[in-house]
Amino acid sequence: MAGKLCVPAMNVNDSVTKQKFDNLYCCRESILDGLKRTTDVMFGGKQVVVCGYGEVGKGCCAALKALGAIVYITEIDPICALQACMDGFRVVKLNEVIRQVDVVITCTGNKNVVTREHLDRMKNSCIVCNMGHSNTEIDVTSLRTPELTWERVRSQVDHVIWPDGKRVVLLAEGRLLNLSCSTVPTFVLSITATTQALALIELYNAPEGRYKQDVYLLPKKMDEYVASLHLPSFDAHLTELTDDQAKYLGLNKNGPFKPNYYR
Amino acid sequence: MAGKLCVPAMNVNDSVTKQKFDNLYCCRESILDGLKRTTDVMFGGKQVVVCGYGEVGKGCCAALKALGAIVYITEIDPICALQACMDGFRVVKLNEVIRQVDVVITCTGNKNVVTREHLDRMKNSCIVCNMGHSNTEIDVTSLRTPELTWERVRSQVDHVIWPDGKRVVLLAEGRLLNLSCSTVPTFVLSITATTQALALIELYNAPEGRYKQDVYLLPKKMDEYVASLHLPSFDAHLTELTDDQAKYLGLNKNGPFKPNYYR
Amino acid sequence: MAGKLCVPAMNVNDSVTKQKFDNLYCCRESILDGLKRTTDVMFGGKQVVVCGYGEVGKGCCAALKALGAIVYITEIDPICALQACMDGFRVVKLNEVIRQVDVVITCTGNKNVVTREHLDRMKNSCIVCNMGHSNTEIDVTSLRTPELTWERVRSQVDHVIWPDGKRVVLLAEGRLLNLSCSTVPTFVLSITATTQALALIELYNAPEGRYKQDVYLLPKKMDEYVASLHLPSFDAHLTELTDDQAKYLGLNKNGPFKPNYYR
Amino acid sequence: MAGKLCVPAMNVNDSVTKQKFDNLYCCRESILDGLKRTTDVMFGGKQVVVCGYGEVGKGCCAALKALGAIVYITEIDPICALQACMDGFRVVKLNEVIRQVDVVITCTGNKNVVTREHLDRMKNSCIVCNMGHSNTEIDVTSLRTPELTWERVRSQVDHVIWPDGKRVVLLAEGRLLNLSCSTVPTFVLSITATTQALALIELYNAPEGRYKQDVYLLPKKMDEYVASLHLPSFDAHLTELTDDQAKYLGLNKNGPFKPNYYR
Fold first, then answer.
1. Which residues belong to any copy of the S-adenosyl-L-homocysteine hydrolase NAD binding domain (chains A, B, C, D) (predicted)?
2. pLDDT in tens, D193-219
């Protein structure tokens, strides 16, 4: 029946390892890679506005700041906005900076974050791209009007040209830059695939009754197991709790080491 | 009766703003401040081991790395260990680096993380301090033995001297460095106090029956309210959702903007 | 006779090790230390303008950026200004940001960089300090007028109070913050003292005629020697050129490895 | 006649803007770009050794550190080695880390920095590339022996396979990675081309006798002029000296602002 689960399901997307690797750490690298491969832009000194300071936005901003870009943030959530402040970014409304920025990046999970009005006000050669959830963050449809000319300059790169000659550089027609114009490192794929495989194994092996027709978070211990399988690549050496320490902390020596909601 | 709550309680400690500000952002500054005020140590080029890569450890490591220290991490939790790897830190067992490091910092919430055996193996002039939860992280008691001489060189700074002349520089007798040897910025106090005040107001104003004799997390919306009250200090400008966007995201335009477990 | 050297002199101030350590690396730490000890200010999210992007300015800016401050630069030299751009800082005139910043830091070697007019326009609680060459960079004299009240709030910290109640926080009466309100690490002193001692030894031992009544730069090889003496503190291991490599590079295996003007 | 200049020449290569842009700032970006385009490697957590800590090495290291790599340095010059220490890098001999690193990068200007012996000891999948001056830094010739198999896996990427199956990933056959596998931003080209054009104009316009048949450094003032022409791209606003300040500093208000040797 529509809208009703027939079997138990595991929400692997919200596991910590999946979240941090696919989002924070992977995007920190793929924003640079995607922009370089498509536009050869130099990051040093560029003014960039990043819409959204969740995990993806945090990753993009850290990388761009490190390479000498000046980054502005837009946010709707005061907690994320305050984090942006503490990390050294000005929190602005898009309109305040849209005329001056060299690059606009969306990472919101929202729609119509960059509107035709914003696009009209961008300066010549402004690069616009999306690292968020789908091709709705930038209102690309609004650019399909007769007075604007589209020119495909290379794969995944369109120049949208205004009547006065101004060009906006649109990447991947507003689809996800990290999927369209960058590659996903095998290391990240390995973490994601391991998480999915473990979830399936757990569902298959679980005694009857443990999971009902509902959506479950991956048990913390399995999340930790995924991480521990990937530590040897980094020659990382975990410390073991002594019996005495485990007792003091009220933990099992083999984990889980944190509550389920820990991020 | 012992062990039983007579009134409802609010766990303000686990609210996001409290966690991030008192831990991550505040410790990022107070580790530098505490070490400078007590020892005048230069951070550039120093080898430092930080035990524990939770919020406090992440803050300490970010600051020390930024100022040119070489930082090693010890961890028991594979997820935090993997985060340390991705942030550019070697994850080691304490014994692997204890002979070579210039500074040892504990941020674990655990006890006896630095033992007498470790202290015996440290090099001359090694600085030892605690940013974690109490004075049990470093086994200071083990240093109160006849063969070791204690010399108070200034307030909060003891030299513990081995028979061969080796000195270990112990700060605040293993108590919290950030409380003993640094100051807490008024900004952080304001966030913490606001959170506590809002929790009390909520408990006082809540209609009968909303809270029972149990411990509650601060509602997400209040956490967001605390953050929003502090944004003007940074001249930060929040973006408002349009009706259409709020509907698309399934959110109220005034928040809460994230699930309760979001960190 | 006035203005005439009677003996040879060595300009140790312009040796590389002296310049980089006393200026870039030392100031990177002492700006944080000096501000914390005097004002307990939190750096995260603060807007700071740094006047001058030479070695001292570069050090100050790197540290402040790393701790989450938003930093603006003023410069007179287009080369330094371009470097500031590439390092991710907005280059502005002081007037453009003076109303909005939380901290003003001078590192110019110039005089009257911060004038009474600037001071009049600062916002309440703005912190003003000098990391440059002397107490002339901030026009402190202009604040000694009857309508302004001075209040000493602690050692090295004055509140200058305008008739409308606005307070500017002046540190060390405009003298050098790093000397007045911070300490100089022994490591930096050691480098400076070694450089001076070697210069004296060189002058004393030099065969007659090598040095005339003039000012000389420390020979590059001695500069390198000062550095090599300090490498063991960091357990740093130098690589030696093979004979073949030395020949290829046209260098003596024992240095000097760079031309005199290399920085 | 061989070895004798027939006309005056300008050494544009050693001008500040050329040096910093082509080397430090450009390489900071192209090391990431070159490695991504050829190998899709994830930088987070990777162990990297960079041979040489001059301008190119400094740029490479800053970028890799910022993206979470653990970077080791080899150096022959104690001054550069000490700078590496202060910037937070372990200075080692190549042999100390060659078995453990994931990436080897040469930036020395020297030859045979990575020898067959080093290549024999690298671990499986180690990436080797050159950002220095020519294809002699890695002894690629030593890999053309019968027991090793070369496999071209994509353009600019060879797997060199040892009899036991170990593969070393050699990029651009040891030629310059930044030229072979990355692109040069137009901004950097503009700076270089402007410097060259100005040098030619100066030589052409100079009154007879100003330049003889020798090699000259670009006058500082022209170097500053190149920089000033590029500031508007960043919307950077220079501050002008007042007459009084220029007199105090002993400078012309229009520059040059620094001595010729300033870097």
1. 23-184
2. 999 999 999 999 989 888 988 888 888
CA distance B43 to B41: 6
Q: CA–CA separation, B170 vs B161, rounded Å?
A: 10
Q: Give the gap in angstroms from C-alpha A106 to the nearest C-alpha of chain D.
A: 21
Return d(Cα C48, Cα B29) in angstroms, integer: 16
Instruction: Write the CB contacts of D98 (distance below 8 Å, at least 6 apart in sequence).
Output: D49, D104, D118, D121, D122
B225-235 pLDDT, tens digit per residue, is 999 999 999 99
C70 vs A88: CB contact, 8 Å cut-off?
yes
- pLDDT at position A2: 61
The confidence score (pLDDT) of residue C2 equals 61
Among C36, C42, C100, whose Cβ lies nearest the Cβ of B187? C42
- Interface mutation vs chain C, best among A41, A90, A96, A102, most C CBs within 10 Å: A90
Cβ atoms < 10 Å from Cβ of D60: 29
What's the token pair of residue B158?
Answer: 């003891």
What phi and psi values does residue A260 have, to the nearest 5 degrees? -60, -30
Question: Do residues B75 and B52 make contact, with C-beta atoms less than 8 angstroms apart?
Answer: yes
- Residue D2 — pLDDT band, cuts 50, 70, 90? low
Question: Which of these, A108, A171, A116, A174, lies nearest to A145 by C-alpha position?
Answer: A116
Q: From CA C180, how far away is CA C34, in angstroms rounded?
A: 8
Question: What secondary structure does DSSP assign to D196-242, as a single string?
Answer: HHHHHHHHHHSPTTSS-SSEEEPPHHHHHHHHHHHGGGGT--PPPPP
Give the three-class secondary structure for A96: helix
Q: Check pLDDT > 50 for residue A1.
A: no
* Terminal Cα-to-Cα distance of chain D (whole angstroms): 35
Please report, for residues C115, C160, C226, the alpha-carbon distance to residue C164 in angstroms, rounded to integers and kept in the order given: 19, 12, 54
Inter-residue contact B202 to B219 (CB < 8 Å): yes
| Residue B205 CB contacts under 8 Å (≥ 6 apart), including other chains | none
Please determine, for residue D3, whether its predicted confidence score (pLDDT) is greater than 80: no
Q: Could you give the domains of chain A?
A: 15-179 (3.40.50.720)
CA-to-CA distance for A43 and C86, rounded, in angstroms?
Answer: 8
Determine the 3-state secondary structure of C206 from DSSP. coil
d(CA B134, CA B111): 9
Q: For residue D260, give both structure tokens.
A: 């010729």
DSSP one-letter code for C10: E
Test the A interface: residue of C82, C85, C92, C100 with most A CBs within 10 Å: C85
Confidence of residue B112 (pLDDT cuts 50, 70, 90): very high
**What does R_g of chain A's alpha carbons equal in angstroms?**
22
Q: What is the pLDDT of residues D109-156, one digit of tens each?
A: 999 999 999 999 999 999 999 999 999 999 999 999 999 999 999 999
Inform me whether the pLDDT recorded for B260 exceeds 80: no
Ranking B14-23, C240-249, D80-89, D136-145 by mean pLDDT, the lowest is B14-23
D77 burial type by CB count under 10 A (0-12 exposed, 13-18 middle, 19+ buried): buried
Instruction: Name the neighbours of C, counting chains with at least 3 Cβ pairs within 8 A.
Output: A, B, D
